[in-house]
Write a structure and sequence with these properties.
alpha+beta, 5-stranded antiparallel beta sheet, 4 helices, 11 strands, 18% helix, 40% strand
């Protein structure tokens, strides 16, 4: 929706937002962001960038290795000399990758107000370790009655130990791996995975 891009553009940075979801593009454009409708695996722009940012677990929406590598190769193709690809995701307990399928019960995670109406939001998850998948289901229940809205987001999480090889396959070199947005080192207790990678060929 342009939350990150609009913040960067407000500081005078030249930003182009890219998404294949037209609703997201409309929201980003309403924030004054220049946008392109395209798939992050296959876009072609006639310029190169110092930074390509894939924020808020965006890379996790690609459910197979081939799609992740295609996206990273395409990003590398659009990097200027010394440019970097930066992305983040939720960290996973890597010992849990060998565990069996895990399910969580619905738990309230948010309250949101839309057009003057309040909604209570709950989340439940199913983790599929074999395919490194997590399906998060959100249920929005309107206060005062009405029909709930239910949606499931399917994501494929990445582990820290597979990142160097995955990046190298795409022609990128891991420059930094942080455990949060303050730049602290990644470790077993980290909740986030924040990656900076540089073009090396």
């Amino acid at each position: 929706s342009g939350r990150i891009g609009a913040s960067l553009a407000a500081d005078g940075t030249d930003v182009i937002g890219l998404d294949r979801n037209f609703d997201a593009l409309r929201l980003a454009s309403s924030r004054g962001l220049r946008c392109v409708a395209a798939d992050m695996r296959h876009f072609r722009l006639r310029r190169r960038f110092q930074r390509i940012i894939i924020p808020f677990c965006g890379l996790y929406c690609l459910l197979i290795d081939d799609d992740v590598v295609a996206c990273l190769i395409n990003a590398r193709r659009h990097l200027a000399a010394g440019g970097q690809v930066i992305f983040d995701g939720y960290a996973v307990n890597e010992s849990a990758l060998a565990a069996t399928t895990q399910r969580t019960s619905p738990e309230k995670v948010a309250e949101v107000q839309v057009a003057g109406h309040w909604w209570d939001v709950s989340e439940s998850t199913v983790v599929w370790p074999d395919s490194q998948r997590i399906d998060a289901t959100y249920v929005h229940v309107p206060r005062g009655g009405g029909r709930p809205i239910k949606a499931t987001i399917r994501q494929r999480f990445l582990s820290s130990f597979e990142l160097p090889d995955l990046l190298a396959t795409a022609g990128l070199m891991l420059v930094a791996l942080h455990g949060n947005f303050d730049g602290d080192a990644y470790g077993p207790m980290s909740e986030h995975l924040v990656v900076r990678a540089e073009r090396w060929r």
